[in-house]
Amino acid sequence: MTSGESITGGAPRTVRDIVCGFCGLGCDDLEVTVAGRAITPRTACPEAGRLLARSDAPPPSPRVNGAPSSFEEAAAVAATHLKAARSAAFSGLGADLEGLRRLYDLAMASGASLDHAASGGLFANLERLARKGWIAATLAEVRNRCDVMVVFGDDPASAFSRFFSRAVPVRGEGADGDAAPLFVTAPGRRRIAVVGGPLSEASRRVLAAHQVTEVPVSEQDVATAASVLTALVAGRGVDGLSGLPDETVAALAALAEQLKAARYAVFTWNAASLPVEDASVVAGAASEAVDLLSVTTRAAVFPLGGRDNVTGAHQLALWRFGYPLRTAVGAGTSRHVPELYSTAAALYDADLLLHTSAFRPDALPDFDRGPVIAIAHPDTVFAREPEVFIPVGTPGVDYGGHVFRMDSVVCLPLQALRPAELPSVAEAAAAILVSFGRGA
């Protein structure tokens, strides 16, 4: 924020060095213009720009059965529904850490399963991590040390617009305003190999100073290609293993030699963009390749993810319950069964849905087996009007908070950009708890 200015009233002002909590990269150099409650992005990726942009229009009021209500009434009705529920499912969980803490309090008071809207990719990776572990890099290690990067699957920029400029900037350019890397100094020294793709033209421009290799592989063959690359790194034969074209296997063989010669190789993929089974195979193959390479050089995985603070939701569940997401809590106990408590599975047996999405106006899961409570973005459009709708502000827009970056090692502070006229998720959940009789 410009020096000496507050978030209330006054002439339009420029707010700089904003931390973004939307995609998990944790970019901290966004810039907007704020006029009253209206926000106009000036420096942001397309996704952050879309989610930061706000008009000066007044926010909607809470609704109960489609009719406007007070915040207190909506909280009281939500508490009544929760008291009557025997099997509640809490979905979405798009909130800052304080909002999540209050939601978890509410889940423990009422009894509910917990799952985040973006946990699919997380659990595809956890399947490998829980069985054998892996060696993972932080974003700082990738940008400062990685000289060979292998990307499995689609162009990461389709979900993380600034991934390449943040992860592999060019020394001397300070890409997107970021500091130049510390230990990869020679121009063009980094090698970027995309096994899948194709890269967008925007990504090719960002990577123009690097040595880029694209190994075209269809979506259904990405997992196979990852397994073949790992076999080649290990020196195992791949004849008859893949069914991939000879030219693809030859390109993977050349890539395997580059990996063996690398000083710090990094494997990255977005599990959410792959079928669940394939994502688990890719995670396993990348982790095995890291194990093999680490005997003679340095290597690490860097799984992509983190949308809407799913990493924070996962970390907080571990702290509070000793289990990750997809856990049912209540009556002083917790039970982790991912197959039962993913949102899709939990809704088969649920008699109430409480959905939270403060970062974006996402659609709610389909559910018609009982009441729906939506603690959600004010612009959310409902296929079916929920029994209770409590519109909430957005962390990093309407109020401050904290979120975790995708690599799990940095907790980022978010600041309020404008006067808040909506409650936070924490305030909404706390009000329901008070009406529930458990206090705040």
Explain briefly what this protein structure is.
With 440 residues, this protein is an alpha/beta fold. It has helices spanning 46-52, 71-84, 97-110, 119-132, 139-145, 163-167, 201-206, 222-234, 246-261, 276-293, 310-321, 338-341, 343-349, 425-436, and strands at 13-18, 30-35, 38-43, 63-64, 67-68, 88-94, 112-114, 148-153, 191-196, 211-216, 264-269, 298-301, 327-330, 333-336, 352-357, 372-376, 388-391, 401-404, 411-414.
How would you characterize this protein structure?
The chain is an alpha/beta fold. The chain has 14 helices and 19 strands. It has helices at 46-52, 71-84, 97-110, 119-132, 139-145, 163-167, 201-206, 222-234, 246-261, 276-293, 310-321, 338-341, 343-349, 425-436, and strands at 13-18, 30-35, 38-43, 63-64, 67-68, 88-94, 112-114, 148-153, 191-196, 211-216, 264-269, 298-301, 327-330, 333-336, 352-357, 372-376, 388-391, 401-404, 411-414. Strands 5-4-17-16-15-6-7-13-14 form a nine-stranded mixed sheet, with helices on both faces. Strands 10-9-8-11-12 form a five-stranded parallel sheet, covered by helices on one side. Residues 1-6 and 172-177 have low confidence and may be disordered.
Overall outline: globular
Oligomer: single chain
Largest sheet: 9 strands, mixed
Instruction: Name the strands of the widest sheet in spatial order.
Output: 5-4-17-16-15-6-7-13-14
Distance between the termini: 32 Å
